[in-house]
Amino acid sequence: MRALRAIASLVIVAIVVGGCAGAIERNPVPTAVASEKASVPSIPGARFWADETPKDLKKAYAEHLQGVPKLGASAPLVNGRTQIDVLALSGGGSDGAFGAGVLTGWTARGDRPEFEHVTGVSAGSIIAPFAFLGPKYDPQLREIWTEYKTDELVVPQIVNGLLGGQALADTGPLRKLVAKYIDREFLVAVAKEYRRGRLLTVGTTNLDAKRPVVWNMGAIARHYDNPEAVQLFRDVIIASAAIPGLFPPVNIKVNVDGKHYDEMHVDGGVTRQIYVTPVNLPFQAFDVLYSKPPQRHLWLVHNGKMNPQFGAVKPTTFQIAGESIGALMLYQHKGDNYRIYRMAQDAGADFNSIAIPPEFNHASTEKFDLGYQRALFDEGIRIGKARDWRKKPSDLPEERPARVAKPKPEPASPAPETPEAPAAAPTEPGDAEPAAPQPPGQPVAMDRVSDLETSATQ
């Protein structure tokens, strides 16, 4: 929300003073047709459109997933079915500390699975590579999300941003931080897991095309001996977290018909806050990629609150615009969550969702407030240990035990007409046969996974 207010402020001021600034030099892809043909030099299968619906999924995956022998090749089998665990990490800015804490707490609990597909958007893109490589990278997650304050990640450049620059802040320090952790050896580790049939993908938004893009980080990591591949891996993460207006976009070099251009990429949350499939198809369409339809378990980590937070808005332009954009993004996020839930319902997949509890109210005084992030990281650890996942979106009510209606007696058949008989003698108390007891109603299982009833809920 804090970042969104800053974006709103920038947009408004840019409208007023934008004509005062000179244009920033670029060599963009010239047309939509050219954009369809654009490719990353020397790294086949590096990315694809997230909104495409390929007619031949096997052919599309053969083109995009080069170097993967078989999807889910390392996944466990239960009753002859491959078990596919998908971890999806949403955007959220500094609230990414929550997702890092959830994974750390889940590790401590002892039943964190190996995910066959890990997806990340914005803040989630910074968590995703470490989550993909497993619990041994939990210390790096803790360090990234609890040890670096605002001035160690971004440098304000308010005047430059308002007078025609690309953003209100420079992310040079953040780039250095990403480079510290993402090096050649890191890509070697990602490539090794990719060859086992596991996927790591990150979402960005191609701002020129106004379309979502999914980056196959495993395909990029295969080229770990190429310094440009190492840099591209880092650039994709920075681009996915590039909140428009607040952080500068990332221009990525591409080729079209032998000519060199660039594409402007920004925060993946502009087009999708969270996702579980790399292309726009239902789960059943992906069954052709497996020898037998797998059992899917979806784990959605929302780095933010999924409930509206009341707060009186000051009657100023920036406040009104900022709060409005915040509400817009919240309901986009809720919509993505519900869409995935319906996809899971249609495919018989196991849906699990978690978010920052609405009662978490630790105050934050700056963009990356260490006190706030450490408290949020600890809250994530607590919830991760409790494994307190919702089986439905927070807007859908929990089911309660069903009430069983008492059966109505069947109407008696009309008796045949007979001569009137004398009235029967009254019966003594106790002569009547007692009514049969009704069976108790069977309660409906609560649609929620939780080992601790007192754990925080959405």
Structural class: alpha/beta
Mean pLDDT figure:
83
**Apparent shape:** globular
The number of distinct helices, counting runs of at least 4 residues, comes to 13
Concise synopsis of the structure shown:
The protein is of the alpha/beta class and 458 residues long. The protein is built from 13 helices and 14 strands.
Describe the structure.
With 458 residues, the protein is an alpha/beta fold. 34% of the residues lie in helices and 16% in strands. It has 13 helices and 14 strands. The chain has helices at 2-17, 32-37, 57-64, 96-109, 123-133, 138-146, 158-162, 172-181, 184-194, 217-221, 227-240, 317-347, 370-386, and strands spanning 47-49, 77-78, 81-89, 117-121, 155-156, 169-170, 199-206, 211-216, 250-256, 259-267, 295-302, 350-355, 389-390, 448-449. Helix 4 links the parallel strand 3 (81-89) and strand 4 (117-121). Helix 4 (96-109) runs parallel beside helix 13 (370-386). The longest helix is centred in the last third of the chain and has 31 residues, at 317-347. The two termini are 18 Å apart.
Based on the model shown, name its key terms.
alpha/beta, disordered C terminus, two-stranded antiparallel ribbon, 16% strand, ten-stranded mixed beta sheet, single chain, disordered N terminus, 458 residues
